[in-house]
Structures are given as structure tokens and as C-alpha cells.
Amino acid sequence: MRVYAYTRVSTLDQSTDMQHAAIKAKYPDAIFWEEKTSGTTRKGRVQLEGALKSIQEGDKLVVWKLDRLARDLNDLTNIVKELETKGAALEILDQAIDTSTAAGKAFLQMLGVFAEFETNLRKERQLEGIKNAKEAGKHLGRKPSLTDEQKQAIKGEREALNPTQLAKKYGVSRATIYNVLNG
């Protein structure tokens, strides 16, 4: 049996050192596949695909935490099915899950459902926060280039100054001036 270890961090300035140490402590001879990329999708994760292609019957894929492998229930399910088809197993150290056992398979499926549920709750909270901010009249996005008073002044000065002169006077682009004049 060979052990393939997969470690992942989301950004280039993060380190996989803690993941490596945890996996090496249990599997000192593990073959490591490491990448620095988002885990929100399986697309573009070259090292994960390489590990999955290398795994054969009786082998095991080991990750430190579930979210290092997948953050989407469909991706997780597909990875587990791919491993099962090859006769290989998945072990998640932090949660002590090993899909070579029936209990490990069941627990992993439950964790996957709860992980996706948490992601959906987070999205709902974000949308609710945006909706509440809009209702409270809070401006979302970039700060406006011009105040309402400046916009009124620009409209009043359109006869005396051309758009290029207005743009220079107010420190904005000509496109912003045209938007004010045509709005």
C-alpha cells in the first residue's frame, strides 16, 4: 500500500508546513502532492489530478482536513467515487475519517453535507447583509467620484466650460462628466 498525501493552501503566501508535519507524523513515507490554489472547485488543481491518477488498488489518499481536499459536496463525492472505483481509500487526519471502513464512509458523507450546508448559510448571510445595507441607504461598492452638490454645479457650468475643462476642474474623467450631464 502506498500513501499519497495531498496538501493545499489557497494563496501563495500561505504555507503547507503544518499539513506536511501532521501527515508525516503518521505516514513518514507518504508521497506528497502540494498545490497553492483555491479549493472551491476541482478545476485547475493539477496536483490533485496527478495524485488521483497515480493512485492504484490498495493505496490511500491522505489529507489533513476535509476542506483541503474539497469544499463542494459534488467534488468530494466524485473524488471518493474515483478512489472507490480504483479500490483505494481516503483518510482525513483531523476528523479521523478513513473510507476503508463503513463508519468512515458514512461519517464522511455526513460531514460533506454539513460542509455544503455551512457554505450555503454563509452565502445567505452575505446576501441578507447586502440587502439590509441597501435598505439602510448605505452605499455599496466604490465611493462616488462626485457629491450631489458637485453634480449640480457641473450641470450649472456646462454652458461656460466644456467637458474636458470640467473634468480637470473636478479631478474626474470626461466619461464621468458625460454621465453627469446625460444623467
UniProtKB/TrEMBL annotation:
Active-site residues per Swiss-Prot or TrEMBL entry: S10 (o-(5'-phospho-dna)-serine intermediate)
Domain of life: Bacteria
Coiled coil region boundaries: 66-93
CDD domains from the UniProt entry: HTH_Hin_like (cd00569), SR_ResInv (cd03768)
Alphabetical list of SMART domains matching this protein: Resolvase
An example molecular function term from Gene Ontology annotations: DNA binding
GO biological process: DNA integration
Name of this protein: Site-specific DNA recombinase
Family according to the record: Belongs to the site-specific recombinase resolvase family.
Domain Resolvase/invertase-type recombinase catalytic: 2-137
Alphabetical keyword list: Coiled coil, DNA integration, DNA recombination, DNA-binding
PANTHER family (alphabetical): DNA-INVERTASE FROM LAMBDOID PROPHAGE, RESOLVASE HOMOLOG YNEB
One of the Pfam families matching this protein, by short name: Resolvase
